[in-house]
Amino acid sequence: MSEETKALESMIGEEYKYGFTTDVEYEDFPKGISENIIRELSSRKDEPEWMLEFRLKSYNAWLEMKEPEWFNATYTKPDFENLLYYSAPKNKPKLDSLDDVDPNIKETYDKLGIPLEEQKMLAGVAVDAIFDSVSIFTSFKEKLAEAGVIFCSISEAIKEHPDLVKKYIGSVIPARDNYYAALNSAVFSDGSFCYIPKNTVCPMELSTYFRINNMESGQFERTLIIAEEGASVSYLEGCTAPMYDENQLHAAVVELVAMDHADIKYSTIQNWYSGDENGKGGIYNFVTKRGICKGDHSKISWTQLETGSAVTLKYPSVILQGDHSIGEFYSVAVTTKKQQADTGTKMIHLGKNTRSTIISKGISAGDSNNSYRGEVKIGKKAIGSKNYSVCDSMLIGQTCGAHTFPYISSENASSSVEHEATTSRVGEEQIFYLMQRGISEQDAISMIINGFVKDVLKELPLEFAVEANKLLDIKLEGSVG
Amino acid sequence: MSNVSKKEFIHTYVQLPSVFPENFKELRLQAKISLDNTAFPTKKDEEWRFTDLKSITANKFESVKSGMLQASLELDEYHLPEARHSRLVFIDGNFSPAHSVVEGMPDGVIVGNLNKFSKHEKLRSHLGTITNYEEDVFVPLNDVNFQDGTFIYVPKETFIEQPIHILNVFTDLENPYYVTPRVLFVGEMYSKATIIEEHIGLSNNIYLNIPVNEFRLYRGAHVHHARIQRDSKNASHISRPVAMLDAHAEYHSYTICLGAKLFRNEPRVIQNAEEVDFTVDGLVLIDGEQIADTHSIMDHRFSHGNSHQLHKVVVNDQAHSIFNGKIFVAKDAQKIDSFQENRNLLISDTGKVNTKPQLEIFADDVRCSHGATIGQLQDEEVFYLQSRGLTEQKSRELLVYAFALESVESMAVKSVEELLLKEVIAYTNRD
Fold this sequence. Notes:
The structure holds two protein chains of two kinds.
Chain A: H1 3-12, H2 35-44, H3 49-64, H4 103-112, H5 116-121, E1 125-131, E2 134-138, H6 141-147, E3 150-153, H7 154-160, H8 162-168, H9 179-187, E4 192-196, E5 205-211, E6 222-227, E7 232-240, E8 248-250, E9 253-258, E10 263-271, E11 283-293, E12 299-306, E13 311-314, E14 317-320, E15 326-335, E16 340-343, E17 346-349, E18 355-365, E19 369-378, E20 386-396, E21 401-410, E22 416-424, H10 428-436, H11 441-457, H12 462-477
Parallel strand pairs in A: 1-5, 4-6, 5-7, 6-9, 7-10, 8-11, 9-11, 10-12, 11-13, 11-14, 12-15, 13-16, 14-17, 15-18, 16-19, 17-19, 18-20, 19-21, 20-22
Antiparallel strand pairs in A: 1-2, 3-4
Chain B: H1 25-37, H2 54-57, E1 62-63, E2 86-91, E3 94-95, E4 101-102, E5 110-113, H3 121-126, H4 138-145, E6 150-154, E7 164-170, E8 177-179, E9 182-187, E10 192-201, E11 207-209, E12 212-217, E13 222-230, E14 236-245, E15 250-257, E16 262-265, E17 268-271, E18 276-286, E19 291-300, E20 305-315, E21 320-329, E22 336-346, E23 352-361, E24 367-375, H5 379-387, H6 392-408, H7 414-428
Parallel strand pairs in B: 1-8, 2-7, 6-9, 7-10, 8-11, 9-12, 10-13, 11-14, 12-14, 13-15, 14-16, 14-17, 15-18, 16-19, 17-19, 18-20, 19-21, 20-22, 21-23, 22-24
Antiparallel strand pairs in B: 2-3, 2-4, 5-6
């Protein structure tokens, strides 16, 4: 092994910095899944009849489906009977200020470096912090309400805005879409709901922090964002989770709907516990994310920085239905140790003159496997459409793997698709060049990696870009001494 | 396993020989076991999900009896002047001594039919050793059925100057039939040869052509291999060409697809030692209701390998092109430089292109890249030619011709290049 590989390997051996658990009492709820569990779940959440029906229908669909096995990852399948489908901090606090928050929970956020007070002061960011399944804190609500924006937990939305939820939930990702989406539709616990009315630019970046904190509690978030004609919103999602031995399942569903001239930007930083050196523990991240550009000239943009989880299966997609609509996907996926990531996107072109751009950067190190899996489909009626895809992989060390599986198809003669992919490593010449100019080896490697992912990170909103850079540093260059 | 009963086997679509040919018993018995245990592919199989196999499954193909040779068939127009002393002709899978000629070969070289050399030690030790396709019915079908085939053996440090022309001709028999051509090539250390493998349908009849090629190249061996597929427009052609390369070997293959209603080509090149260089190029020109599918594998198992693949496709009418190019780089196979490019020109609104370039890399010090494009002729280019007095139609034809030209120019044999240029013009010029 060369010196520089050793240096890299020691950098990526960085321990999970956010591994701790918070001691909060949990309401008991039986383990396992059945029709009764779903009824119980629904009644505890005080849901209307139609919601229960939606859940039961999804549950029945799920029962008929088979767990998928087509992806490039091996893992122990979750035991669905041994999962807890509902958990909420025992006394749901009704809070007016931060002081009322359970000190333990507050401490968790402090350890994570997300002081709510500070965030509150940082004008422009509304934080809807989700601690496990129940939303406990929502800020800046009034300011949003002034603009007519609805931003609340999905449980609240089911009660307060049933018409909107009923109309759109499951409209982009039907319950039968896939195994984990069906499971989510049956048992989803909570999540965010966001509605931007006609011709409104959301006055601030919306952000939700998720944190899995209850051993054996699967998290089944459900997010629904609707941007009406001419509306515009930027939504940020970031995740960290404590260190546990037991594999935890995270099967979220995110649906985005963009009407004429609407614009949705959805950014994610994912840094859940990825398991220890031997691949023990770690989160299973099986997420279904999809947006539909329903209206003409609408735009949906996904940006993600995936650094955590033991197994990630995630394909944020865009259905380009409206004419002249735009879909974008910017992704950095970093895998180390025994992590396995199979991630990518789907761009389905249906409308005329639709455009899509895919930029995916994969970095694999340690014994990990990193796959890009994408689909670009240009339908018969999507005349004049264009797609441009780049997926680059970088390998660090000799025991990792990088894979590219792009599916591309076109059915009309006026559209064009361009796809390119490369696999390479940090070049010795590049490192030498930088070191020759007085930069240390670690700094040189860090600079090269930052350059490799720059195209994606610059797409993140400013608030996230800082955190993203920090995260990459921690993940790939922290502990060299 | 409740859906086992729904699976079909190859016996449903082809009539297997009731008695195996006498030679190569062991290979055939092995293959028979695979055939009995492997289901015929369907669209549910990942490797076949885009490929419509209707032109096979809608028929029942008979096996061709060995006595049915048409010795009087006039085939002069298909002869290549460069290969006038080195030509092997197979008619409906049967070797035709009357049409074949092998003269003036260097000492020790064997160019002949498999049956004649079936006791040859090099043939026995190589046949069927590298054609290892997973879950496959077509190689085993070839194994149990091939009546004859080509055997080429080039001894150490021997150059064969003239190209060897393997001409497979398909005639119009009464019923749909299937044929399983076979080629075994063994190139010893630092040998060199040029092979032109051709498949020609003389009529528009329905048949199923399942060639299997084995090219074993030892240290420093060098092969240029052109494959020209001009099957009947109603035929199905499932190809399995494999090459295995030792150190310093070079293998350059160029597959040209013009005919067949269904063409499925699965070239594989296996790097079996350090320092090899290979090419897996392709040119596909299809129209009507043709389906052309290429699933290639460039398998780098050792360090220091160069590979190159340029796969060009023109799709017109309702034709459908499928491409899946895999580049594998095994663990510890460092310093690999692999490049793959798939360029598709879709010139009709009813055509369809599916492409999936695929990289699977397990070594860090490599440079692998792939590119895929699907596009159409640029309006500016068409306008440029029109402004110089060409009609729009002529401008478009000229641009398609230029697109195809790059692949044709790789041909090492002049007469093959000329022949292909004519085919390209016939394809582009549709009035």
